[in-house]
Write a structure and sequence with these properties.
Blueprint (H helix, E strand, L loop, with lengths): L4 E7 L3 H12 L6 E8 L4 H15 L4 E9 L5 H11 L4 E6 L3 E2 L4 H12 L3 E9 L5 E2 L9 H5 L3 H10 L8 E4 L1 H6 L11 H10 L5 E11 L11 H15 L10 H19 L6 H10 L1 H21 L4
Parallel strand pairs: 1-2, 1-4, 2-3, 6-9
Antiparallel strand pairs: 4-8, 5-9, 6-7, 6-8
């Protein structure tokens, strides 16, 4: 029997989405899976728990070696939920999915583990494709780089500098050897919703090598906090923490012009925070924000236009 993989399904106020994710996990051919469902204080989760347990019992095969339900009573945020679940995991490898996200095929875990066994690395990123509510696939996503040939050519310094620019790594598509957490600790809890970005920055600064599996292994539901062009206020609060703690103190890409770049970047962050607070703003504040951040509005519109154009060229219907 091969090494155990702990597959963690995260949920918060989306218990129905658990079943979609469960279906893809239970259909995996890999022969040694630990299944962990970790809910972050969803109201009424205890009432749904029996249905979830019955579903697993009815659908599971002999490859599901252990099942854990981690029901957190009080909502603490995504980061604490993930860390709590990882502490309960027994597998050599750890794979995390959010409710509604799925493995792209029944061989996905086999491909993840085969790659990890061959490379002996501690973390690897597969590719993911977005899935809209209408069932359309989006292969070009603003949240991640799709050119894995390029990423494989990066040095650790290249990766770190690219991360200073933006988070280009697909959070739903990573798998890790538990050594990653034993040697580097769990996800930092100074953010509430964003677990991946500060951790990737931290790992890159410690010299950890990221590996890449040039194959689509995850279907990512385009309904999360960072899947659209604009973000919520809590998400942006996390981003301000990340830039102030993990990026601005260490980014030296522009030499003597670094303060100018940092100033422009802070302007962009303030623009996104204004967009997040738009519905709470008075008409006068909206006018001032529109004037102040007009170039950023144009830039975001252009990025979304180009992304949609790329996806139309690629095509694909579920």
């Amino acid at each position: 029997m091969r090494e155990m993989v702990s597959v963690i399904i995260l949920s918060y106020r989306n218990t129905q989405g658990i079943y979609e994710t469960l279906e893809s996990v239970l259909s995996q051919k890999y022969d040694n899976i630990e299944l962990i469902i970790s809910d972050d204080g969803t109201p009424g989760f205890s009432e749904e728990l029996h249905n979830i347990e019955d579903y697993i019992e009815a659908k599971k095969n002999s490859n599901i070696k252990n099942t854990v339900i981690n029901a957190i009573e009080v909502n603490g945020g995504t980061v604490k939920n993930i860390n709590s679940a990882i502490k309960k995991a027994r597998g050599k490898y750890i794979k995390i999915l959010s409710s509604e996200d799925r493995f792209s095929n029944s061989d996905a875990l086999d491909k993840y583990v085969e790659y990890m066994e061959n490379t002996k690395g501690v973390i690897a990123f597969g590719k993911m494709r977005g899935v809209t509510r209408e069932g359309e696939y989006k292969y070009e996503l603003l949240s991640c780089e799709s050119d894995y040939k390029l990423l494989k050519s990066y040095t650790i310094e290249d990766t770190r500098n690219r991360l200073f620019k933006r988070n280009f790594l697909p959070a739903p598509a990573w798998i890790a050897d538990r050594r990653l957490f034993e040697e580097n600790g769990l996800f930092p809890e100074d953010t509430r919703l964003i677990e991946d970005y500060p951790y990737w920055l931290y790992l890159s600064m410690k010299g950890v090598k990221f590996d890449y599996i040039d194959e689509v292994l995850i279907d990512y539901r385009l309904s999360g906090v960072s899947s659209g062009g604009f973000y919520g206020e809590m998400f942006m609060k996390d981003m301000l923490v990340i830039y102030n703690k993990y990026i601005f103190p260490y980014d030296r890409r522009f030499g003597i012009f670094q303060p100018v770049y940092n100033c422009l970047k802070r302007g962009g962050l303030n623009f996104y925070m204004s967009a997040a607070r738009w519905d709470k703003m008075s008409a006068g504040r909206k006018i001032l924000a529109g004037i102040k951040y007009f170039p950023f509005f144009i830039l975001v519109k252009f990025q979304n236009f180009m992304n949609n154009y790329k996806n139309k060229r690629i095509g694909g219907k579920k």
